[in-house]
Amino acid sequence: METREGFIRDFRGETIGTITQQSSAEEIFQNQTLRPILKLQNDLFLAVFANQISKHKNDFYNLSVEKKLHYIENVIQKDIKFRNSLKGMIISLFSLDEYAEYIQNSSSLNKRMMNMLIERLKSQVQLFEMPE
């Protein structure tokens, strides 16, 4: 029977980005762990964010693109419960070794994680259209 560690790593896929001898531990973690997870979970993040928009019944769909981008950033930074939910979707796909590494520097890695997710959602803002 395959271990959880092996399954998780195989399921997520390969490293995304370049790792060199000059890469910091955070950059290595980002490219080996965070980027593959964010890519794998992309459709889920889109669905969760669309649900967040509909739950708060605001005028997101009537905002300009610039204001939509600001909204994405603002909701992830300010809504602690929502941000923690997003973090959970990422952390749940860590191996035990990766989790041990994460807890050593969680504050910095959380910032990196959320910034990458914000940029990912912003780059796909056109997918958030008013439901019919």
UniProtKB/TrEMBL annotation:
This is Glyoxalase. It comes from Flavobacterium caeni. The lineage of its organism: Bacteria, Pseudomonadati, Bacteroidota, Flavobacteriia, Flavobacteriales.
